[in-house]
Amino acid sequence: MYSEDHSAKSFERPAFIQLLAFLKKSKGRVDLLLFLKWDRFSRNAGDAYGMINQLNRLGVEPQAIEQPLDLTIPENKIMLAFYLAAPEVENDRRSLNTIAGMRRAIKEGRHCTLAPKGYRNARNEQNRPIIIPGKDASHIQFAFEKMATGLHPVQEVLRLVNKRGFNCSKNQLWRILRNPFYYGKILLPAYKDEEEASIQGQHEPLVSELLFNEVQDVLDGRKKNHPSRQRQKEELPLRGFLLCGICGKQITGSGSKGNGGVYFYYHCRCGCKERFKAEEANWIFEKGLHEFSAEETVIDLYMKILEDRTRLSVPDKQKALQELQQEIDKNMARLKEAQQMRLDKEMDMEEYRNVKKTYEPIIKTLTDQQKDLSQSSMEVSKYILPCTDLLKNLPGYYANATLQGKRLIIGSIFSGKLIFEKNYYRTTGVDPVFEEICSTSAGFGGNKNGTFRLNFEKSHEVPRTGFEPVS
After folding, report:
1. What is 119-219's CATH number?
2. Which of 223, 284, 329, 382 is deepest in the core (most CB within 10 A)?
3. What is the spatial distance between Cα 347 and Cα 355, in angstroms, rounded to a whole number?
């Protein structure tokens, strides 16, 4: 006797495969195969007829205990067809009901299957199934933030999240970074005449839509911000921002080994004799940042002006939102009219699809504009506060920043290259906004030629370590 608990949708069942092997080996010694009902034999009519023929060639008669049929009587084949087709029809109906139920749930913004990484399945107060952020949510957010910088390939981001304790393969991370579910959308697959759609989910997003789109730009190659091939050194934050005061070519930096350790220098890459100690140049630059930090009252005034300029008055904002809503309603009405014409067979499917392709992008664009306008004041305020803090304590931020952070600060202040000579820096390019805010500072001045001089005085306070090699 062989028993199994696998579905009868196919004959790829472990126990049945063993039984078939036994029947082939015992050909001529077995003449009857018994099972409870025909739907336990198979729930697929086509497969069932093929297996009946195979068993007959082995001299075995399949027979249901509760639904016996004498297949030598031609009329009983009608009953056999019914017994075999009924469970297949039942399966198909159950499948259709499941698909319809899942699509209805997705259209309502509900996730129907196992929670993806970063979430967990739970139940709300009405005992309805929901998904909520899980223990890995912070790792997912970290991965998106790192990827959005454009400085790390997927393999490097994978190494960083694995180091944090997030168990994930490269393919899984790639699918996570591509999945709109993490910014609140659920993908509704195309089905029959329905095209694929993106539905606003009821779950809590782990990342913003802006961050998700930035990651897509990086993955698609539209955003490239990769570091230079030359490995950056903590001791050389100014490398890449300096020009030679003698020949005007770019200055690089490197370390020299000597008694007591490695000593770093900035030097010209074109062979001229321009060469100075990185430790002193870095210290003078950092010291000089204290001289052109603007007063707090000036920064607060500029931030207030910026906030006021980016915030619409309440009546103007409401009017703009109303106008956008009117445009959305007008285009939605056109789309619904096309749907009605399709239902009344006044429009063929190809024409209807063309109408959808025309109006759905318009509606999405208008909806996004409406959303951006609703959140504009909040978003600006969110970014203004950190900028204010940075400008008020620029030297402190720079001193405590990572190498990448220091380079971002330098690049944000100076649009041109720096030249270091006689214990001060000069440049021809300063960010105009920064220049305006800090124009009253004692350490920041310009001349008629458009050259800005940063009066960073050298001091005996420059730290020394080890025994510096003779140069």
Report:
1. 3.90.1750.20
2. 284
3. 10
